[in-house]
Every structure is written in structure tokens, then in C-alpha cells.
Amino acid sequence: MVWHDVAPAEDFEPDVPKVIEVGEERIAVYHLDDGFYAISDICTHQYAILSDGFCEHGKVECPLHQACFDIRTGRALDEPAEIALATYPTRIEGGVVQVSLG
Amino acid sequence: MRTVIVGAGQAGRRTAEALRGLDPEREILLLGAEEEPPYDRPPLSKEILLGEARPKGLMQREMNAYAAERIDLRLGVRVVAIDPSGRCATTADGTRIEYDQLVLATGAQARRLKLPGADDPRVMVLRNLDDARVLHAMLRPGLRLAVAGAGLIGLEVAAAAAQLGCAVTVLEMGPRAMVRSMPALIAERVAGWHRAAGMVLHFGCALTAITPQNTGLLLATGQGEIEADLLLVAIGAVADDALARQAGIAVADGILVDAHGRTGTPNIFAAGEVASIRQPDGRHVRFESWQVAQQQPLAVANAICGIDKPYAELPWHWTDQHGHNVQVFGAHEPGFDWIERDDGAGRFAALGLDAEGRVRGAVLIDNGRDATPVRRIIAGGQRIDRERLSDVSVGLRLLC
Ligand SMILES: Cc1cc2nc3c(=O)[nH]c(=O)nc-3n(C[C@H](O)[C@H](O)[C@H](O)COP(=O)(O)OP(=O)(O)OC[C@H]3O[C@@H](n4cnc5c(N)ncnc54)[C@H](O)[C@@H]3O)c2cc1C
Ligand code: FES
After folding, report:
1. Residues B361, B255 within the same domain
2. Residue with CA nearest ligand 2 atom 1
3. pTM of the prediction?
4. Is B153 strand, coil or helix?
5. B13 and B101 assigned to the same domain
6. Which residues lie across from B268 on neighbouring strands?
7. How would you classify residue B159: left for phi > 0, otherwise alpha for psi between -120 and 50, otherwise beta?
8. A42, A44, A45, A46: best mutation site toward chain B, by most B Cβ within 10 Å?
């Protein structure tokens, strides 16, 4: 498994994701009460960057048509999005949050 | 128990799916005049014109999803009459279909120009997927496109055409763009994007005659003559309420319904853009927006199943033009005091205050992150200090 550095854990603010690009993938990493979660940053409905959306209580809302996604599972919670977001494992190494594309 | 839904657009699909979710047993028929399975219309004036044949988000379901949900989807079937006392609908081929409940989800049609020459094939409207495909095939660099009507659809087409290298002229009878859908300060910003893209916008300019010629269309306007290769007429939509009208159901540019989608006639409901929905103040309003076609059918399905869940969403619509996303929430009335918030990083919000200082409407440009905060602020209805609302360093999420 290859791990990519995102940012030092202490730099994360609640409800404000950090975004990294790995190859073609754009991944957003969120700090929630129970840990760090990484999801694809592109909405599955049309094309929008989810880290530009409103985030609260472990959910992120698409800035274009307001589909909601569960950050922990990637699940699409309501239309217009139907398809879940890809989720990625995270870990902390030497105080730095890392994500893997598996 | 059989529910028949007339019109297999977005609202028809949403009604059918919501009904199935509430009741696994009932028979659900979804009858659509078009040959296409249900689709969402917003991409027609955006992605399709720019050349995406099947943009993501156009069709929410594959054909086989309807069978899987036991929704009896029949395409190419037009209902020509309904008989409320006999509880049946008649299709164009004469088939009579009995129902226990009938949902009219027939949407709207593009309003046409009533001028000689308007039947020339180079005069088009945009409502259906077919229209969008034909229009896309015609847009090419150098094409002289005239657009009658500076509403949302007219301007979206104009923006897409300009992006494809067409020479675009917009003719608007009214004093400014998007009178119905946006406050003036936003319409001015949007008009600025169009002008910057090299388009010509004429306001207070009525189209008075169309003369088809070999080399194009000669358009006479209050401000002189214009030559165009193609004219797109985008002067609004007319509710497709003829079935209801002929059956004696109350209509007034739209089928009059309550917050549950009930018409005045027992067992007949209306969903989506064809419905003119009674507001808390007693007025009826018909909304031409994706949101209404998406959410109001849920109230209809609930009402059919005897569940009291009225439609009470804050009005919301959006438009995408020249790479910008504009979202409008709540009301916009001429007397509002608008507070503008520009974060300097390209995200913009305008909040409309009524005479009592309450935020009643909002417009966001490239700023979907503030959608939920402004919804909550408007729904909350409290007075918020004007200074605080104007202070961009205070995020709107802290004020809701
Ligand atoms: C080009 C375009 C772009 C848009 N862009 C946006 C946008 O960006 N944002 C936004 O908020 N809104 C937008 N809208 C508005 C929104 O898409 C519509 O309000 C919405 O499609 C209405 O859905 P509906 O199901 O009520 O009606 P429709 O989608 O019109 O569906 C009605 C269906 O009923 C069928 N029908 C009619 N009569 C009969 C009959 N007698 N028998 C059988 N079938 C019948 C019709 O053929 C049609 O397929 C746009 C609309 C258009 C046309
Ligand atoms: S692009 Fe995200 S909901 Fe439409």
C-alpha cells in the first residue's frame, strides 16, 4: 500500500477538509469527532467539487444541486446523487495524516 | 388500487418512485408522450448544447430500473382526455385506462411567437431533448444566432452558443435580463459576463416581424433590423394544463392545487411544473424549477397514501452561464434592500431584506457552500443586524 501525506493532523479544522490530488484522483480528507476520513472530492451527480460545499455533522453537501453524502461511508443520502463516493483509508504517521488509494 | 400518472418527466418519475416507496402493492402506470424515458431538463440548455451526448445527471434511471420497481412505464403514449366521473383516462389510440387516483404531471411547453414567419424551421424553441439535439447540431462557429428573450433559458443558450464561437444577439422586450427570476443587481452582473464574451444584448427591444430569406432571417425590431441564421425563441413556458381544463378542473396558467397537490376534483392531483401551488398567503404560484419537480411530487405521493406532508420548501432555482453558477433562494421583490457580500476570492452572496429588516431572499454566485446557511437564515425569519450581515469576515454559517 502506498501512503500519501495530506497534512499534519493538528492543522485540520472541524468541517474544513484538506484536499490532495493523486494522479487523476482528487481526494478530500475530513477530521470528524472519531477520526480522519477520506472521500473522493468529485460529486457523483454531475461535476462539482464537494470540498466547496457545506459540511456539518459528518455530512457534506454538493455546492451545485445540494445532494448530501455521508463522509464516513461515502453513501449518497438523497437525490440528485445516487452513486456513493469512493472512500479511502487514512492513518497518522509521525503526526501527519496520510491517505492511500489502495 | 391503481394510480395513473400522466407525463413521464421529472415530476412523473418522482411521483411514481415515491409512491412505490410508500406502498409496495399498488399498481403504478407512468404514461409519457415522449419516446425518451424520464429525464431532467437542466442539461438541455447547458451540457447537451456544448456537445455532451449523455451528460451525467440527465437520466436518473436506466430503463430497467422502472421494471425493477414495478413501475409500468409506457412511452410514446399521449393521454388525450380524462373523465373524472368515470375515473378513466383515454390515450391517443383510444385505449381507456381506469384509475383510482390520477396524477397530472404534464409539465409545460415553450411559448411560441405569434408572428408571421415564426413557422420557419430556422425559428426554434428549446424544451425537449430532441430540441436540444437539433440545436446542438446547428450551433457552429460564425453562426449568427438571435435569441428572443433574456430569461434563464435564453441566456444559457446564448452563453453556450458564444462559447462555441457563434455571434449572438439577444433581444429582450423588458428593461433588463431575467426579470422574473433574479433581482436587478444580479441580472446586471450576469449581463456583464455576456457582454464581456462579446455578445450583444438589446433591452426594451420587441421583435415585430420575421422575414425568412435565402441567406437567413430578417428580424424587424423596435430598434432596427437584424439578420440571423437562426432564431431561438425563449419567451417563457405555458403550463400543459389542457387535460385538466377540458375536464372542468380549475386552472389559471397551471392546475390549481393545495400544498398536497390536490386539485378541486376528488382523486385528481397535479405534480411538478404544471401545478400552480397555493401559498400560505392564499395566492397560487407556478414554479418553473427543477426543485419543484423534484420535491413537490413527494407531497403528492404522501397525499395519495393518506399521509399529511405538505410541500413547504423554500423556492430555489439555479442557472449556469459563462462558467458561473448562480443560485436564487426565497423571494426577490422590487422593494428589497440588498446587502452584497463579496469575499474577494470569487464567492458572492446577496441577501434581500424586506421593509422589516428580515432576510427574505438570497442569491449566491459560485458560492454553493452558503446554500444551507442562507436557507436557514431565510427560514428562521429573525431580524439580523445589517452590519453583521454585511461583514464578510463573519461567515454566513455563523449567522444561521
Ligand atoms: C431547457 C431547460 C433548462 C432548465 N434548466 C433549469 C435549471 O438550470 N435549474 C432549474 O431549477 N430548473 C431548470 N429548468 C426547469 C425544470 O427543468 C422544469 O421545471 C422541470 O423539468 C419540470 O418537470 P416536470 O416533470 O414538471 O415537467 P416536464 O419535464 O416538462 O415533463 C412533463 C412530461 O409530460 C409529457 N406530457 C405532456 N402532456 C402529456 C399527455 N397528455 N400525455 C402524456 N404525456 C404528456 C411531456 O411530453 C413531458 O415529457 C429547465 C427547463 C428547461 C426546459
Ligand atoms: S453536481 Fe452534485 S448534486 Fe449535482
Report:
1. no
2. A46
3. 0.94
4. helix
5. yes
6. B102
7. alpha
8. A46
A70: β partners:
A59
* Domains delineated in chain A: 3-100 (2.102.10.10)
From B203, B233, B263, the end of a domain falls on B233
- CB-CB contact of B299 with B309 (8 Å): yes
| Alpha-carbon torsion (A32, A38, A44, A46), positive or negative | positive
- Atom from ligand 1 closest to the CA of residue B128: 53
Q: Rounded to whole angstroms, how far apart are CA atoms B176 and A100?
A: 52
Which residues on chain B are in Cβ contact (under 8 Å) with A79? 60, 294
- B228 shares a domain with B177: yes
CA angle B98, B309, B282 (to 5 degrees): 95
Q: Which amino acid is at B178?
A: M
Contact yes or no for B368 and A56 at CB 8 A = no
Give the integer Cα–Cα distance in Å for B270 and B257. 7
Size of interface A-B (CB pairs under 8 A): 46
What is the residue range of B195's domain? 112-233
Let me know if residue B310 belongs to a domain.
no
Alpha helical stretches, state H, B197-337: 242-246, 290-304
Among B45, B90, B106, B324, name the best residue to mutate to test ligand 1's pocket (greatest count of ligand atoms within 8 A of Cβ): B106
Q: In this predicted complex, what is the ipTM?
A: 0.91
pLDDT at A78 exceeding the cut of 90: no
8 Å CB contact between B53 and B132: no
User: What cell was used for A21?
Assistant: 490530488
Q: Judge if B101 and B140 occupy the same domain.
A: no
Establish if B54 touches chain A: CB-CB under 8 angstroms: no
Looking at the structure, do residues B22 and B119 belong to the same domain, yes or no?
Answer: no
Mean pLDDT estimate for chain B: 96
In a domain, B311, yes or no: no
Ligand 2, pocket residues at CB < 6 Å = A 43, 45-46, 48, 62, 64-65, 67, 80-81; B 57
Average pLDDT value for residue range B58-77: 94
| Percent of chain B whose predicted confidence (pLDDT) is above 70 | 100
Cα separation of the two ends of chain A? 6
